[in-house]
């Protein structure tokens, strides 16, 4: 009966689907992603010794308390992986309202978003040309103690012939408006009202103002003399008082946000209490002052003040608790750690298509034109916690789609320069990098450069070979030949797993989560010093360090792991200059062959020079303690 129950449970889990969180415009989209399979990551040692010696070594290892604790950790990891839930889109907390910034092209929307979010350096790309921003990008901002998100949109154009990707940009902007709590319409004060501004104002008045506040921001009005005059020209748009602002200098942005918060409170488009923290704190402070001066509190008269002096009526503890509650509202809310996943590759290999397949909607604009994606685009997914552990937190995955990276010689200073810089920055900030390759085009020189960049930055990596459905004449040996080809052409990341997927059909895209989970575990793995030195001892006994013509030979004493992300090993030798690159690669290969769990991450090797006398002194105890140490250098180092 137990086996039958287990079978029924497995079938139920494998056929379960996930409800996708979506806005009213995208409510018909459902994301169905099957949960990851179970991977077993266990430590095992392969020594070039006899069977009897190997058995004795394994017995010594398992007698170690650290090794036993590591086995328990692996068993717990396996149980957790068995109970993983299907993936779904991340639901933005209701406590974090969204502010949409819209307008026609080239009026300063991205500059205003950078000013509000405080991301003038490294924020949205700003240039004096139209069409820089195409997809909607989200930034976190804070004002008056309130945390909210600002979404930057592309230039809205109602005529599809007026701009490139006009229809797709309009769809992205409409989605941003639907899921927002307030809208800021940005216009150009230097040019004055235009026909496009009037079209946008008519649309917002008819469709949006009933549900949420819409404020008019007249940009480029930094002058104190002419700013108010330039803003007054936009009264005829019918959106209330125009706010004269300057995204470049920050003029008028505070007043704009204050009025926006008041409008959100009146409309009730956000959660209750949003935008009132400062007012509640001021009222609580005034109540404390009135209590100290024995004045009347809010809602009290002279009789109540007289009775309160004799302990009758409202208590002073109530006023103090009100003040403490108002102050605690400004405390930082702890946020959950996210797994940052960067999607990188050369142009037109299917990065945005893969992001849309993972997200289950048109999160990014996709076309056959290379360079469609300009700025970095985020898509957040979550894996709900196991039902067996109600206190567990969900696993958050943040996928970052980046612009295609061309060769350095073809990049000119301008928007593309900043696009590439943001893509390279996404690699440095990522926990796992998905290197997207074109399965039909093979490996190019730019792919090798990106692979070397990922390895140098010490990021975990998964190779994604896209467009697998377009490969013709596939047979039973095509997969093995393809794996061998990519391993040979990308020696910089020969340790990275390879997935052959199709973003167009969704083939094997669900396996990306398995590869990401394994890469994160490998990137944060820590090995005990005893196991590490045993593997290193076997590698050195099998192949000693090479000797030079003058007879100088490196002597390896011991090694220790000093950090993770990526795993960093420090090896103490007599002279680091005697360890050449070939022997470093040999040690790296032996380490991966002997220990499971490093398949998706680079290993950093650091060689430090030490004298034999210092090593012997440290490993056999300090001078004067009678030689209490028990460890000794390697046999060849004595």
Overall 3D form: globular
Mean pLDDT: 79
| Oligomerization category of the chains in this entry | single chain
Number of strands: 16
Distance between the termini: 63 Å
* Beta-strand proportion: 5-15%
- Give the proportion of residues in helices: 25-40%
Largest sheet report:
7 strands, mixed
Across the major sheet, the strand order is: 1-9-10-8-11-12-13
Radius of gyration in whole Å, from Cα?
31 Å
Strand pairing plus helix content: what structural class?
Answer: alpha/beta
Low-confidence stretches: 1-51, 60-83, 620-638
**How many helix segments?**
19
Provide a descriptive summary of the structure in words:
The protein has 19 helices and 16 strands. With 638 residues, the chain is α/β, with parallel strands linked by helices. The strands form 3 sheets. A 7-stranded mixed β-sheet has the order 1-9-10-8-11-12-13, sandwiched between helices.
Topology:
Elements: H1 2-14, H2 51-63, H3 65-82, E1 88-89, E2 98-102, H4 109-117, E3 137-143, E4 146-152, H5 166-178, E5 182-188, H6 195-207, E6 214-219, H7 227-232, E7 243-244, H8 253-267, H9 277-292, H10 302-308, H11 316-328, E8 338-344, H12 351-359, E9 377-383, E10 395-401, H13 415-429, E11 432-438, H14 445-456, E12 460-466, H15 478-489, E13 498-500, H16 512-523, H17 529-542, E14 556-563, E15 568-573, H18 581-594, E16 604-609, H19 612-619
Parallel strand pairs: 2-4, 2-5, 5-6, 6-7, 8-10, 8-11, 11-12, 12-13, 15-16
Antiparallel strand pairs: 1-9, 3-4, 9-10, 14-15
């Amino acid at each position: 009966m137990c086996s039958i129950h287990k079978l029924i449970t497995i079938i139920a889990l494998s056929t379960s689907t996930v409800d996708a969180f979506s806005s009213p415009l995208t409510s018909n989209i459902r994301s169905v992603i099957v949960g990851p399979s179970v991977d077993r990551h266990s430590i095992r040692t392969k020594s070039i010794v006899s069977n009897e010696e190997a058995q004795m070594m394994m017995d010594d290892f398992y007698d170690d308390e650290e090794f036993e604790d590591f086995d328990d950790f692996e068993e717990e990891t396996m149980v957790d992986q068995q109970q993983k839930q299907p993936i779904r889109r991340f639901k933005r907390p209701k406590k974090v309202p969204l502010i949409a910034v819209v307008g026609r092209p080239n009026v300063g929307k991205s500059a205003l978003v950078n000013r509000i979010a405080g991301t003038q350096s490294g924020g949205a790309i700003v240039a004096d040309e139209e069409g820089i921003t195409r997809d909607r990008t989200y930034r976190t901002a804070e004002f008056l103690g309130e945390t909210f998100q600002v979404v930057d949109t592309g230039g809205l154009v109602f005529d599809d012939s007026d701009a490139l990707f006009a229809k797709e940009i309009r769809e992205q902007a409409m989605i941003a408006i639907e899921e927002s709590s307030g809208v800021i319409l940005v216009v150009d004060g230097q040019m004055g009202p235009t026909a496009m501004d009037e079209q946008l104002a008519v649309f917002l008045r008819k469709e949006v103002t009933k549900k949420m506040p819409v404020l008019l921001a007249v940009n480029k009005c930094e002058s104190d003399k002419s700013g108010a005059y330039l803003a007054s020209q936009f009264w005829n748009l019918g959106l209330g008082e125009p706010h004269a602002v300057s995204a470049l200098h920050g003029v008028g942005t505070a007043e704009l946000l204050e009025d926006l918060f008041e409008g959100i409170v009146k409309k009730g488009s956000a959660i209750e209490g949003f935008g009132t923290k400062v007012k509640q704190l001021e009222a609580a402070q005034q109540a404390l002052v009135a209590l100290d001066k024995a004045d009347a509190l809010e809602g009290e008269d002279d009789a109540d003040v007289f009775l309160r002096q004799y302990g009758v009526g409202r208590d002073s503890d109530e006023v103090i608790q009100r003040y403490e509650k108002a102050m605690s509202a400004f405390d930082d809310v702890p946020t959950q750690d996210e797994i940052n996943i960067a999607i990188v590759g050369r142009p037109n290999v299917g990065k945005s298509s893969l992001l849309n397949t993972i997200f289950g909607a048109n999160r990014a604009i996709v076309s056959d034109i290379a360079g469609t994606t300009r700025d970095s685009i985020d898509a957040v997914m979550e894996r709900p916690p196991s039902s067996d552990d109600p206190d567990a937190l969900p696993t958050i995955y943040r996928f970052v789609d980046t612009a295609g990276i061309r060769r350095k010689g073809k990049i000119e200073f301008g928007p593309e320069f900043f696009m590439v810089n943001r893509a390279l920055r996404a690699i440095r900030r990522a926990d796992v990098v998905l290197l997207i390759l074109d399965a039909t085009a093979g490996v190019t020189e730019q792919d090798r450069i990106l692979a070397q960049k990922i390895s140098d930055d010490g990021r975990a990596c998964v190779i994604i070979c896209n467009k697998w459905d377009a490969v013709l004449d596939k047979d039973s040996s095509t997969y093995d030949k393809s794996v061998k080809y990519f391993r040979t052409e990308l020696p910089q990341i020969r340790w990275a797993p390879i997935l052959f997927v199709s973003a167009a059909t969704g083939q094997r895209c669900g396996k990306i989560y398995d590869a990401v989970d394994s890469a994160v575990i490998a990137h944060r793995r820590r090995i005990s010093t005893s196991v590490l030195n045993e593997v290193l001892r076997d590698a050195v006994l099998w192949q000693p360090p090479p000797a030079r013509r003058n007879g100088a030979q490196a002597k390896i004493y011991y090694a220790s792991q000093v950090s993770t992300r990526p795993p960093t090993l420090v090896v103490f030798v007599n002279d680091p200059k005697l360890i050449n690159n070939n022997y470093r690669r040999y040690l790296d290969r032996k380490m991966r062959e002997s220990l499971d769990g490093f398949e998706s991450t680079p290993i950093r090797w650091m060689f430090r020079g030490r004298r034999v006398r210092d090593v012997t002194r440290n490993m056999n105890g300090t001078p004067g303690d009678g030689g209490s140490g028990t460890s000794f250098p390697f046999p060849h180092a004595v």
